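Weekly sync notes, structure subgroup
Attendees: PM, AL, DS (notes)

Item 1: joint prediction request from the bench team. They want all two components modeled as one assembly rather than separately. Inputs as received:
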Amino acid sequence: MAHLPLEGLKVLDFCWVPVGPMTTKYLSEYGATVLRVESGKRPETLRRAGPFAGGESGVNRSGYFANYNANKYGLSIDMSHPDAPGLILRIAEWADVVTENFTPGTLERWGLGYDELSRVNPRVVLFSASMLGRGGPMQTQPGFGAVLSSLAGYTNIIGWPDRGPVNPYGAYTDFVCPKFAVSAILAAVDRQRATGRGTHLDMSQLETSLHFGGPMLLDAGVNGREPELVGNRHPSASPHGAYPCAPDANGEADRWIAIAAFNDEQWAALRDEVSADGFTDIASGEFRTFRVRKAHEDKLDGIIADWTVKHDRHELMRRLQAVGVPAGVVNDTRDLFEDPQLRHREHFTWLDHPEMGPYATDYTETQLSLTPGRLDRPAPLLGQDTEYALREIVGLSEAEYRELAEAGALE
Amino acid sequence: MTDETDYGPGLLAPYRVLDLTDARGLLCGKMLADLGADLVQVEPPGGSPARKIGPFYKDEPGAERSLFWWAYCANKRGITLDIDTADGAALFRRLVGQADFVIESADPGFMASIGLSYAALQELNPRLVMVSITAFGQDGPYADYTASDIVGMALGGFMHLTGDGDRPPLRVSMPQFYQHGSAAGAAGAMIAHTHRQLTGEGQHVDVSCQQAVARTLAHAPQYWDLEQTILRRMGAYRESAGGTFTRINWPCKDGYVNFQPGGGTAGAARSVRSMLAWMTEEGMGSPELDAVNWEELGYGTARADIMEQTVAAVAPFFMTHTRNELADGALERRILLFPVATPSDILAHRQLAARDYYDRIEHEDIGETVTYPGHFVKDLNDPSRVGIRRRAPRIGEHNREILGGELGLNERDLARLTELGVV
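Output from the run, pasted for the record:
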């Protein structure tokens, strides 16, 4: 089998909830050795979050946890035990990278801040992520991605003008940040390998997420603009929206297609398709130019919806794409598993988990031609690899391991 | 081993990136440039089509006034080069010989059609890492589909889960689809780079924006895989599993706030307790909710009856305060509450100010200083290693510096190529 690109990269991983484990999953998929430290006494939030295999809950049954922790080794260490800091420093000597996303100050309270880690290992790259970054008046403000999406300005621009804003689905910013985090960690690793020096990276989820909204912030700064809710409308496209489609073969009625026309060619092609099916109102003068379409957009949307609702969404997507109109079905989560393109890319793979059985986990969106990623080990059971990792990977002697185990530090 | 001082400023200072992307991929190179890489944006003569994207400085359209361009091309230098001509492609090949990364976002097949496929470029530079950012990846049944942001957010599964249950699915009304793929492209570039530094082998990184968006859906796909449950959009509420849901978005006196009542760890139960105590302090307490065992409820979930009681008690309390009052009170009391921030809230945010987040960059050409989102990560050993150092380039601003200074073209060569429309 091909060499993996991050083989030999050693990671001591304290990350929890989605943002951290998704970051270190990029590393583990591409071959890094990731030792995921958890407390057996206080299993992390994702282990207690659904869905659970077969709908039956348990710390080793969460699909949320299992997805983001594939290919990692699971260690159980009781961080409140007096022997824990010494053990962690021992693992930190082994590690190239230490990752954590506790509330700022937590590592320091354990005597495991960057100063202590770099004293035992000057090469170490410590990656710290938190909601709002280290220092400043709000560094310990608790939070998670779902509400942070609002602080980062996303929620404010999602919604219908006659209702109110709605949050983007899920802990949205948790899934924005890992891509920035991986880039930064590997940049620091590059420098570490070249110079022998480590560093401490401090990521604020808020600060990182704002980079997906740069033009909006500049617009506010130089033009004083405050955005308004616009539903699915777009300032330079018309039509631009999600339109209802016929129920599918399963009787599922929540079926939609997204359609947009950004220029005259796309508009003409769309108009001809709609009109060819007898909805000739769309060819009337009130929609002829972009400017007039914008003035009559509600009416235009109504005509298109009358047309789309009579059709199967996939048939419409193929038909519109064939004539160059941007169109895409609104996939629900079941559809993602059946989507021909995602299947072609092998987006999901199934890992056989000792308690859960086969479960779906997703590959990265980046396919490397020479050294593709590999997901071949299911997420660890709680504490499953403690002995193996400490003895075989970190290099503790049997006596050292026994002593820690008997003292109760490995719970 | 290289001495730290020889390595230069910026985490990626030794590396050169050639960026051919249009609006779809600009963020990828921007991230590498923010980390310190030397990035050269290659635009077609006349300027990148991304310069036509608004908003615009003072709302007046113009190739040098696009705030989209400014935001995603800061830290870059720029040259113009028509790689679709023989002369232009030849110059580009010479640049590739000295480059570490090439990033492109053309439709699949385009680069090969002009003789600049990865295979062709690798012959010039075996160490080259090339990143291709497209909607669906380089091949497959949708590879030739046209995708705008809304189409991508639909096919990626985001829209079905976002919006009000009784209305069509919604997108975020600023582009996200290609940004997810672009950001992932930077991560992929660095993974390939790590391999290249060890082995000398370059490779091609093929990014699918659709996959990138499908990876933003938290545990929703797993709900289908493991419990055959399709999660759905619920407006101000959020469904976690059949029968359990929580309200997240609430109106207040002057806007909206997010507050997610629920139990479990992550400080959620403590947060609800603090909120209930605050309400009691102001004479709007709820003994029924005080009696709920929040500590025993699951993460992010609460039963329907509890949720109903919570809404009845909490909603009127929020209406008596502004979003800033609520946010300040929440900070003091360690409550999981955030305002639904507007851009001006974000520009004035005190935590961002305290961390010196914003970079003020001089646009000497228009006599203005513009505020940019700064470091996406802070290097605490030397904060100057990550952040914004220069404004976006004007069209062809660095032609002389790069094509002249580096490739040795003289004024006559440059004049001839300009006349031919190559630069």
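Discussion: Residues 240-338 of chain A form a domain with the formyl-coa transferase, domain 3 fold (CATH 3.30.1540.10).
Action: AL to compare against the crosslinking data before next sync.
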